[in-house]
Design brief:
It is a single chain. With 348 residues, the protein is an alpha/beta fold. It has a single domain, classed as Rossmann fold (3-Layer(aba) Sandwich), CATH 3.40.50. The chain is 39% helix and 9% strand. The chain has eleven helices and eight strands. The structure holds 2-acetamido-2-deoxy-beta-D-glucopyranose (3 copies). One 2-acetamido-2-deoxy-beta-D-glucopyranose (NAG) binds next to helix 8. Belongs to the 'GDSL' lipolytic enzyme family.
């Protein structure tokens, strides 16, 4: 009798949690839910800004799950931006590159994120995060596309997934110099966050670095069995600095404008559990990508001169966490999004 009472009570407690949680999500009961999303950063957030002629993201099999053809997303389907927009209940913001073609869509915000970029200049030519924010600023001050009111009900997503570090090593940077370079990167990131908020955007979310040592690029050495812990240690240093910078910015600002979306812990949690407790997804070999070049000199989407496929794709992208050597599948992003739910509460 007693036990069933306890069970009944806890069932009710859970139920009420679910109901209130859901109500907040649907109606934004006591909070102002942002109605626009502005996005800065790289391929983890890009939904079509990369030049069509130059990126694999515009080639088959990218986009096969959503929207069913290549769309400039670096995945088989939806990416972080799409899930965050869904959370807000708005359409995924239009890529800056396509803004003139869909004036009706400007009301949902805009996506400036471009694959391959960082806070500094990387191996792709443009636009670094400073230039992305410059473009945003011009839309406010010069073209008056967005008003102060618009920005007050806006959220910014800032994605920094590690291209600055790839560029650092590609240019011959040393392991010894890495720590001070990480400090430079995070300091520049901090200036960017402050600038976005200074332009009037009320809430600014910034990602931690995902576990770089767990990307297929690194785990290919161990046949996709083990993460590279040396790389993940450097990532942890970056992430500690990001947390510190966000705490400092909040201490200096009026209304806790800044918060962290912890990709490191959400990726780690999903990879460790193979996605199991989060939704119905299951990733049998979570470190192995769905789409791979047939050898190291080919990437997912590569073709030879005669148009022959130089890559292989798994039969079911739903069962893979990673899409290519750097990016999650839509199923991967969905499970990361589920793991991020607690930090998304900070939006309110
Ligand atoms: C960003 O790119 C612009 C234009 O190429 C360049 O002038 C600027 O120095 C870059 N900013 C940073 C922080 O690297
Ligand atoms: C881990 O990464 C570091 C730095 O990129 C590299 O020097 C090392 O060889 C890697 N270790 C393994 C076991 O792959
Ligand atoms: C917040 O700022 C005040 C002064 O501006 C400072 O004394 C305090 O140490 C800061 N706290 C944190 C957590 O940075």
């Amino acid at each position: 009798m007693e036990l069933s009472k306890v069970l009944f009570r806890s069932y009710f407690f859970l139920l009420s949690l679910l109901i209130t949680g859901n109500e907040g999500w649907q109606h934004g009961a006591h909070h102002v839910r942002p109605t626009k999303l502005f996005v800065f950063g790289d391929s983890y957030a890009d939904t079509g800004n990369y030049k069509k002629s130059e990126a694999n993201s515009w080639k088959f099999p990218y986009g096969i799950t959503f929207p069913g053809k290549p769309s400039g997303r670096f995945s088989d389907g939806r990416v972080l931006t799409d899930y965050l927009a869904k959370y807000l209940g708005v359409k995924s913001p239009i890529p800056y590159r396509w803004r003139k073609f869909a004036p009706k869509c400007l009301q949902f915000g805009m996506n400036f994120a471009t694959g391959g970029t960082g806070v500094f200049d990387t191996l792709v030519s443009e636009p670094n995060m400073t230039t992305q924010i410059d473009n945003f600023e011009k839309l406010i001050t010069k073209d008056s596309v967005y008003t102060k009111m618009d920005l007050q009900s806006s959220l910014a997503l800032v994605s920094l997934a590690g291209n600055d570090y790839s560029a650092y090593f590609a240019r011959g940077g040393s392991a010894q110099g890495l720590q001070s370079f990480i400090t430079l990167v995070v300091n520049q990131l901090s200036l960017n966050l402050k600038r976005i908020n200074g332009l009037g955007v009320r809430k600014v979310a910034v990602t931690t670095l995902e576990p770089l040592g767990c990307l297929p690029r690194s785990t290919v050495m161990s046949s996709f069995q083990q993460c590279n812990e040396t790389e993940n240690k450097a990532v942890s240093f970056h992430n500690i600095l990001v947390q510190q910078v966000v705490a400092k910015l909040n201490n200096e600002s009026q209304d806790s404008a800044f918060f962290v979306l912890d990709l490191f812990s959400s990726f780690s949690r999903v990879l460790k559990s193979k996605g199991a407790p989060l939704g119905n997804l299951k990733f049998e070999t979570p470190l192995k990508p769905c789409c791979m070049g047939i050898s190291r000199s080919y990437a997912c989407g590569s073709m030879d001169e005669k148009g022959g496929k130089m890559y292989t794709v798994c039969t079911n992208p739903e069962s893979a966490f990673f899409w290519d050597t750097l990016h999650p599948t839509q199923a991967g992003w969905h499970s990361v999004y589920l793991a991020l739910q607690a930090s998304l509460e900070e939006i309110h």
